[in-house]
Design goal:
344 residues; alpha/beta; Rossmann fold; 5-stranded parallel β-sheet; two-stranded antiparallel sheet; 43% helix; globular
């Protein structure tokens, strides 16, 4: 197996966060975990259709990285974007309704699990095509540069996207044009069902960015404090220089690629080994050791999250599907009226 613990940026194990911030991070990760567990449950009941890609095990990446992204910055995600959308501030109820295909969803039920979108929060997808969001992020950053906006475009993508041509084209253009893109690679060791070492001759993804003269580093993506610290450092560098930066989060998904994946390409022993580094339980232990978390704190957080998820499901259940006659709306831009040049 690839050694994901080699040459990692040091975490914040030696820096104690404030109690308030620590509980916020824990709340954010538990919120994603419980949302996804409920999504898997209702999917199994046939209430969510299509594809469902769970983020369970990778919560520290979204929660840690999003601490460095401001409200004016843009976020581009992947089809495994539930955690990104929740952490960005899109209500759980709206996201659950979208997965149900209801008109009250963030994309009016047209996108489903893989196509969350909220322009008001500068959350620009949700892309089912592997690597499809990377050139979109470069375009957003180019627009900001042309408009003299000092903003960061954060682009999440998986390790499988590194094998796609648009990764290399986008990395090259971002470096050539000096664009403020924060490339955030969630390396969970598997591109769908193919192990990293089977499709990449160079398994250190951070090195690939340096071949385009893009500054990069790798961090332990199972550690929320290390992820936050590295993301803040990377985002600050992008803001100061206006140039791109690639941050590789070395993480692991506990569930299969999707709900329809039999997960036969890795061993149960490997999965259990990684679960010992569960970003939520390990963070809980660290906080307890530092006196920052009590049983009542955890009970309160779990209760708040449970209520939110229950209300989200109720909202989705109560929502309506879009009328059949409206399903073709917004598929194409309306044809403009042609001017009458004949004089008649």
């Amino acid at each position: 197996m690839v050694n994901l613990e080699a040459d990692l940026t040091p975490g914040e194990s030696y820096t104690q966060p404030t109690r308030e911030h620590a509980l916020e991070l824990l709340h954010g990760m538990l919120r994603i975990r419980r949302f996804e567990e409920k999504a898997a449950e209702v999917y199994s009941l046939g209430k969510i259709r299509g594809f469902l890609h769970l983020y369970i095990g990778e919560e520290a990446v979204a929660v840690g990285a999003m601490q460095a992204i401001g409200p004016d910055d843009a976020v581009v995600a992947t089809y495994r974007e539930h955690g990104h959308a929740l952490t960005r501030g899109i209500p759980a109820s709206v996201l659950m309704a979208e997965m149900y295909g209801k008109v009250t969803g963030c994309s009016r039920g047209h996108g489903g699990s893989m196509h969350f979108f909220d322009a008001s929060r500068r959350f620009y997808g949700g892309y089912a095509i592997v690597g499809g969001g990377i050139p979109i992020a470069v375009g957003l950053a180019l627009a900001d540069k042309m408009l003299n906006q000092r903003r960061v475009t954060a682009c999440f993508f998986g390790d499988g996207a590194v094998a796609e041509g648009e990764f290399h084209e986008s990395m090259n253009l971002a470096a050539l044009w000096k664009l403020p893109v924060l490339f955030l690679c969630e390396n969970n060791l598997y591109a769908m069902g193919t192990a990293l070492e089977r499709y990449q001759s160079q398994t250190d993804i951070s090195l690939k960015a340096r071949s385009y003269n893009v500054t990069s580093m790798a961090v332990d993506g199972m550690d929320v404090l290390a992820s936050e610290r590295a993301a803040r450092q990377a985002a600050e560098t992008v803001r100061e220089t206006g140039a791109p930066f690639l941050l590789e989060f070395r993480t692991y998904r506990f569930r299969a690629h999707s709900m329809s994946d039999p997960d036969l390409y890795r061993t149960k022993e490997e999965i259990e080994k990684w679960k010992q580094r569960d970003p939520i339980s390990t963070f809980e232990h660290r906080l307890r050791d530092r006196g920052l978390l009590t049983d009542s704190d955890l009970s309160r957080i779990e209760s708040e999250v449970a209520l939110e998820i229950t209300e989200a499901v109720e909202f989705a259940e109560a929502g309506e599907f879009e009328p059949v006659e409206d399903l073709l709306n917004d598929v194409c831009t309306p044809r403009p009226v042609q001017p009458n040049v004949s004089g008649r």
